[in-house]
Design brief:
- The structure is a homodimer.
- Chain A is an all-beta fold.
- Chain A is built from 1 helix and 16 strands.
- Chain A has one helix at 12-15, and strands spanning 7-9, 19-22, 30-32, 37-44, 54-62, 69-71, 73-76, 82-86, 92-97, 109-113, 118-121, 126-127, 131-132, 137-145, 152-155, 162-164.
- In chain A, the strands form 5 sheets. In chain A, strands 1, 9, 10, 12 and 13 form a 5-stranded mixed β-sheet that branches.
- In chain A, a hairpin with a 4-residue loop joins strand 3 and strand 4.
- Chains A and B meet through strand 4, strand 5, strand 8 and strand 14 of A and strand 4, strand 5, strand 8 and strand 14 of B.
- Strand 4 of chain A pairs antiparallel with strand 5 of chain B.
């Protein structure tokens, strides 16, 4: 049995191998609208143009899982980035593994958003499906629309699955 | 002096001449992630490809104005749509006028988001800058990046300005 998977702090630096953290803290802004608005500009790379794709704006309403949770499956989107921003300041968990073909349970890393942080998975980054923590929560999701096969799944055998414990 | 401008209810139908309302109510979803997530799919047209543009993801932090507020200026983005989604369920106001060259204070219409509704202005739609109501509020904003002149302003003479009263 592999060791349990526990979360690390979510920061721009710690998450850099997997994509962007969408947050105000530590981000640059400039003033617009006569000084009334701080524009935190271009916080995540929206990388959706491969094979004629375009950006989609969606809302995901996710139910919470029970934890600890066995990590059975990871997915990746080879044709586009995917960004999640929580509405209503709801913490959520993120499990990722580096892009590439040689990925196993030992490569998993987990992070917890404080509810004011969103994430954008870089194109091809392996990630778990949405992991809402305490209660049903809404997210704005920016991903790719268009033709092409844009979801690969990686299933772990039962004896290799790690237990994710967010506490 | 033109009559005061008062808000109408914000619905997909009432806002249709100007763009999209981003909301769960009245929107279609399908289930993903083994039934754990409702995906409300493609809620706003992200129309940013003109002249080689691409989608930007930004966060706007807006200070509240004092009301009633004279409507002095409207702007439009001729090269791209612009979507606003409130974080933390914060109501905000929207003032719009139809796309086109023949727009004056008589053409203005105002709406109030309930805080769970976002809006996306269609490319070329005249709109007021962000109108936060009660307190400093954050919004995710999806608009266009890339070369080209993407902001026109329309200023109203003082004797034609209408007072916007959100109450």
């Amino acid at each position: 049995m592999n060791p349990p998977l526990r979360p690390e702090p979510l920061t721009k630096d710690s998450f850099a191998p997997f994509g962007d953290v969408i947050e105000v803290d530590g981000s640059q802004f400039y003033l617009i609208n006569g000084g009334m608005v701080q524009r935190y500009h271009d916080l995540a790379r929206i990388d959706v143009a491969t094979e004629g794709g375009h950006a989609l704006l969606n809302l995901f309403r996710g139910k919470p899982y029970e934890y600890p949770l066995p990590v059975k499956m990871m997915e990746r989107h080879p044709l586009g980035s995917q960004a999640f921003m929580p509405l209503s300041a709801t913490p959520f968990a993120v499990i990722v593994a580096p892009a590439g073909e040689q990925v196993g349970p030992a490569n998993l890393r987990a992070f917890i958003s404080n509810g004011h942080q969103g994430v954008s998975y870089r194109r091809g980054t392996w990630h778990h499906v949405l992991l809402t923590l305490q209660r049903e929560s809404d997210f704005i999701v920016i991903d790719r629309g268009g033709a092409g096969s844009n979801c690969d799944e990686l299933h772990f055998p039962a004896d290799q699955q790690r237990l994710f414990d967010p506490r």
